[in-house]
Design brief:
InterPro entries: ATPase_NBD, Gcp-like_dom, T6A_TsaB. The protein is α/β, with parallel strands linked by helices. It contains six helices and eleven strands. The relative contact order is 0.19.
């Protein structure tokens, strides 16, 4: 299996190439430089692996949630490559990718709450459980204030993602000792995207590129200044 994975939905930018189980990745926290980095990194990784674009079996991309511009950019680039090559596109939840990274090296059977700072007093949150070498969602993904996020199961949870630093660590205070560990600096990585996408492709996943759409979770991708002020007033 030969797979190109693109992740641009947060302030980090990463690209990975998976070739028959061997992974290579470029990763950098590079706000506002995603468009500059993605294609050169992809070409460099393919060259290092001795591949051309035409040798790829599929393209993978995070579909969101995350920064609106970053999510749109990643999907647009991935769609363009997949359409040009007539290859399937594998969209994967950004929160699932984040959770996958959090579970690497963790004890078997762990639950993980992945959360990304969504600004305006909210977080994007998704709850997952380890399912063999893959993940299983145990609650719908949502955007909510930290005090509205719930853990659907008892037991020990891992916390991963910038959402745990949002609002002065409100999620950490909310769940207290239910969190075995917290990594509030973690960001999604293309290598974890590639792992999840490869499993999906092996199970028959993949979509026509033009059918892939972002998962913003918010109904409105932008708020007016008046709406932002009203939201702040509601939060007190």
């Amino acid at each position: 299996m030969r797979l190109l994975a693109i992740e641009t939905s947060t302030e980090a930018c990463s690209v990975a190439v998976l070739v028959d189980g061997a992974l290579s990745e470029r990763f950098e926290v590079a706000p506002r430089r995603h468009a500059e980095l993605v294609l050169p990194w992809a070409e460099a990784l393919l060259s290092e692996a001795g591949l051309r674009r035409a040798d790829l079996d599929a393209i993978a991309v995070t579909r969101g949630p995350g920064a609106f511009t970053g999510v749109r950019l990643g999907i647009s680039i991935a769609q363009g490559i997949a359409l040009a090559l007539d290859r399937p596109l594998l969209p994967v939840s950004t929160l699932a990718v984040l959770a996958m990274g959090g579970l690497r090296g963790a004890p078997a059977g762990e639950f993980v709450l992945a959360a990304i700072d969504a600004r305006m007093g909210e977080v994007y949150a998704g709850a997952f459980a380890r399912d063999g070498e893959a993940l299983r969602a145990v609650a719908p993904e949502a955007v909510a204030a930290p005090d509205a996020v719930a853990l659907p199961h008892t037991g020990s949870w891992l916390g991963v993602g910038t959402g745990f630093a949002a609002e002065d660590g409100a999620l950490v205070r909310r769940f207290g000792d239910r969190l075995a560990t917290v990594d509030a600096a973690a960001l999604p990585r293309a290598a974890d995207l590639a792992r999840l996408a490869a499993r999906s492709l092996a199970e028959g996943g993949g979509m026509a590129p033009e059918r892939v759409e972002p998962a913003y979770l918010r109904d409105h991708v932008a708020l007016t200044l008046a709406e932002q002020a009203a939201a702040r007033e509601r939060r007190g």
